[in-house]
Amino acid sequence: MLLNNNVTEFILLGLTQDPVKKKILFVFFLLFYLGTLLGNSLIIVTIKTSRALGSPMYFFLFYLSLCDTCFSTSIAPRMIVDALLNNTISFNECMIQIFSLHFFGCLEILILVLMAVDRYVAICKPLHYMSIMSRRVCSMFVGVAWVVSCVHSSVQIFLILSLPFCGPNVIDHYLCDLQPLLELACTDTYVTNLLLVSNSAALCTMSFVMLMFSYVIILYSLRNHSAEGRKKALSTCISHIVVVILFFVPCIFIYTRPATTFPMDKMITVFYTIGTPLINPLIYTLRNAEVKNAMRKLWSKRLISEDQ
């Protein structure tokens, strides 16, 4: 419920006010976003059309790429437009952006956790892998992840909507997020900030610690595998660990501290909202022979069908 809310729109200061730099950022973010759409769409289509990529690992990779696409789409198009036009956003659009940002961010965290669970079962319980990680179980896990993400985002929005915004309405950021909005609320936000930080910090920190611990166990268990099996499993696990570190470290820095902002916050946020969704498909394709082979077959079939 809104209390004494006189603000109908916010002004986003963006990354810079320099007209020349804005044009450079427009090109930069447009290329990044198009690359994100292309890379993740290619993975989605490849997994959906390839019979060779039917294992649970690629089932979760499909949803990770879908999540990355949606996560980037909730941020990048607005950034691209704002780089050339005025940076105003309505109150309702701001709330939708916050909900989308935290929904897909939470969903990405949970999918990364599920991918770690999948690798643990595949490496530590290989004989029972297909029975434990059946398609039904994987679908149930993803369904639970969607529900948890919705609850997480709803809690964030409920806490923000409980604050009164009487002015000013200038957000020193390029997107609507929790910390910048707390600074604009015309009331004491200590308790609200504590609840918001607890919600996000618990999700990010606990998930990160659990993921790192699980990969330590996985890597330790590889000592009993053959050299070939160890090499293949190690390659997959390293890819996952790189993705986890690239996504979690910036998130923990942003969301596990009091309602204060630093000059570096914008660039760090750019990295995990724009950079990570682009980097993920590169990591999973360049280090995964099965995905690369499936993509080649898909491309070959397409060329053959066009020639006929």
UniProtKB/TrEMBL annotation:
Protein encoded by which gene? LOC135230154
The record describes its membrane topology as:
Multi-pass membrane protein
Q: What cellular component terms from Gene Ontology apply here? A: plasma membrane
| Gene3D superfamilies named among the record's database cross-references | Rhodopsin 7-helix transmembrane proteins
Which CDD domains does the record associate with it?
Answer: 7tmA_OR4A-like (cd15939)
Q: Which domain of life is it from?
A: Eukaryota
- Listed transmembrane segments: 24-45, 57-76, 96-117, 137-161, 200-222, 234-255, 267-286
Q: Which residues form the G-protein coupled receptors family 1 profile domain?
A: 39-284
State where the protein is found. Cell membrane; Membrane
Protein name per its UniProtKB record: Olfactory receptor
